[in-house]
Design goal:
Radius of gyration of chain B: 21 Å
Largest sheet of chain A: 2 strands, antiparallel
Structural class of chain A: mainly alpha
Number of strands of chain B: 11
Structural class of chain B: alpha/beta
Order of helices and strands of chain A: HHHEE
Shape of chain B: globular
Oligomer: heterodimer
Shape of chain A: flat
Largest sheet of chain B: 11 strands, mixed
Distance between the termini of chain B: 15 Å
Number of helices of chain B: 17
Number of strands of chain A: 2
Number of helices of chain A: 3
Chain lengths: ~100, ~475
């Protein structure tokens, strides 16, 4: 099923950005290839096969003790913020 | 001593031990060469002049049992380096300065290795050409009109040009092993979890690997010893013991069972590569190895690239959701916070990355998730099962890392759906899907340009991969190659 420009735009906007018409045009061409590549996946029989989410099947190493370590200071956390006020990241009013 | 930068790590260490050179000599030369080559090859986002200060401090107190003492190295710009700009070659992070070191960076600091620069990459590791970084394209030191490959392009360039003897990279689909082939290097991606990823910007968490470049296999062993190991800051890292890889290197291949993949081999047309591969197989058999061509299954092999694309682009959309200019990174203006986030991401992600994210968004969309994303994860399971089936009877799998030399920037790309692209040029993602140790090293020159071979082993059998690779290296004359334009 061919993907439309409208669908691609919706998918991009859902990820909180937009693209130019030229970029959407290029992406439409790329999707012609992606769709054929996805067909290759769809053609494989996966009856009774579980999805693989990690390369290995192994037990968890367990949780470490609940003791503070490698703690960043507030100053460090805010060091790269664009706009800081009163030890907090400042943003536009949300309410 | 002439050309001290052309030495391997081992040779540099011996020269330091014999007091023929000092760490400051190495670092000074490295910085000069980095700056001298920057305009032509563009390996670096940041060159660290202050590295020389550290090197002077290291001129005394040499540690004889530490092969990496005083050795200059470069680091891909997606590893956090405390107090040093780390951009992921993305405008979304163009002013980002981490407040902590990645575990591997810390380990190398503890080994008194000297970081001389952060290298250019394809933005956020999403690319394979070395041309999608926010500070410009990387050029291949063998021919500046050709691709270096990516996404760890800058690190490959830095080692290939003889600026440093090793550099850190990351490998999610072949992002160290492919540029290694194109730049005549050893590129090693150990098993998933063998090296901590704490502090490495995530691209696709289930297939990201920390990896690195050197110019010899033994140097790879030295680097791996220094940076491998479990880390409680990385819950996916592995706590099994770290071998003494360099001391345990064993070039005897007698009795080893080596598989090659029939469907891959039949796609190779480059005569130099064909001849070298045949020559290699004959030499290995003469030394007592058993080399067998095995079938993987064409239909399944054709899905390796699509499965990689679906999984990586989907996971990437999640991993990069935090790049919004709010907590860090540059921020574009807007009337609301939502608008600021939207404007920031629109302005600062490159076109290529945005288009890949849309694919990820498509695969994860409710109406497609079962059909595409979950399906890809199931096919991944079948691919990995097949690999383990082969490894029941064979010790390593040997494949051409690429079917060709580095392409020129002016070359047109071929049909993406032909097996040459789907399989020959993109099969090394097998190593990522299965978390397997996988190493590329040069095997031939074709029209004066390198092509590599890839050795892949069972999970956590790094020693086996290094041993076979060292044996292969000993049969050819491509050890410690510096790119011809940079000698």
């Amino acid at each position: 099923m061919k993907v439309t420009r409208e669908q691609l735009k919706k998918l991009a906007n859902r990820l909180m950005y937009d693209m130019s018409d030229e970029e959407y045009e290029l992406l439409e061409k790329e999707f012609e290839v992606y769709e054929k590549e996805i067909e290759l996946i769809e053609n494989i029989d996966t009856e009774g096969v579980d999805p693989m989410t990690f390369p290995f099947f192994y037990e968890s190493i367990g949780l470490r003790e609940d003791e503070p370590c490698d703690v960043l200071t507030t100053e460090e956390v805010l060091k790269n913020a664009h706009d800081v006020f009163d030890n907090q990241v400042k943003v536009k009013k949300v309410i | 001593m002439d050309n001290i930068l052309n030495l391997s790590i081992e040779e540099m260490h011996n020269a330091l031990k014999e007091k023929k050179i000092k760490p400051s000599d190495l670092v000074k030369a490295s910085l000069e060469k980095a700056k001298g080559n920057q305009e032509t090859y563009n390996a670096f986002v940041t060159i660290l002049e202050e590295a020389l200060e550290l090197a002077y401090e290291l001129d005394n107190n040499f540690e004889e049992d530490n092969p990496l003492y005083g050795i200059p190295y470069a680091c891909k710009d997606n590893f956090s380096t405390k107090g040093i700009l780390t951009t992921g070659s993305s405008n979304t992070l163009k002013n980002f300065i981490p407040v902590y070191d990645a575990t591997v960076v810390k380990k190398l600091k503890d080994k008194k290795t000297v970081l001389i620069g952060k290298t250019v990459m394809d933005e956020l590791a999403m690319g394979g050409t070395g041309t999608n970084g926010h500070t410009g394209i990387c050029r291949n030191p063998w021919d500046k009109e050709r691709y270096s490959g990516g996404s760890s392009g800058g690190s490959a360039v830095a080692v290939s040009a003889g600026i440093v003897p090793f550099a850190l990279g990351s490998d999610t689909g072949d992002s160290v092993r492919k540029p290694a082939s194109l730049c005549g290097l050893v590129g090693f991606k150990p098993s998933w979890g063998r090296i901590s990823r704490y502090g490495l910007f995530s691209f696709a968490t289930s297939i990201d690997h920390a990896a690195f470049f050197t110019r010899t296999v033994k140097d790879s062993a030295y680097v791996l010893e220094a940076i491998a190991g479990g880390d409680y800051n990385d819950a996916t890292s592995n706590f099994s013991p770290v071998n003494n890889y360099s001391k345990d290197l064993n070039l005897d291949v007698k009795g080893l069972k080596i598989a090659t993949i029939k469907e891959l081999d039949s796609l190779v047309t480059n005569k130099d590569l064909l001849n070298a591969f045949d020559e290699l197989k004959n030499k290995l058999e003469k030394d007592g190895a058993i080399v067998t061509s095995v079938e993987f299954g064409l239909d399944l092999l054709r899905t390796v690239l699509p499965v990689y694309l679906v999984i990586s682009c989907s996971e990437a959309t999640s991993n990069n959701a935090s790049l919004d200019g709010i907590k860090f990174g540059p921020r574009k203006e807007g009337k609301t916070m939502e608008e600021e986030v939207f404007n920031t991401r629109t302005a600062y992600f490159s076109s290529s990355v945005k288009r890949r994210f849309v694919l990820g968004s498509y695969c994860l969309a409710k109406e497609n998730q079962e059909r595409v994303f979950i399906k890809a994860q199931k096919v991944r399971h079948l691919i990995v099962n097949k690999l383990h089936e082969i490894f029941k009877d064979y010790d390593v799998i040997l494949t051409p890392a690429s079917g060709k030399v580095a392409s020129k920037f002016t070359d047109t790309s071929g049909d993406p759906l032909k097996d040459e692209n789907l399989i020959l040029e993109n099969h090394m993602a097998l190593g990522n899907l299965g978390g397997l140790p996988s190493l590329t090293l040069p095997i031939c020159l074709s029209n004066g340009l390198p092509i590599g071979i890839n050795v892949m082993g069972r999970p956590y059998e790094e020693q086996m991969v290094l041993n076979v690779s060292a044996a292969i290296e000993s049969k050819f004359n491509f050890k410690n190659m510096i790119a011809k334009e940079c000698k």
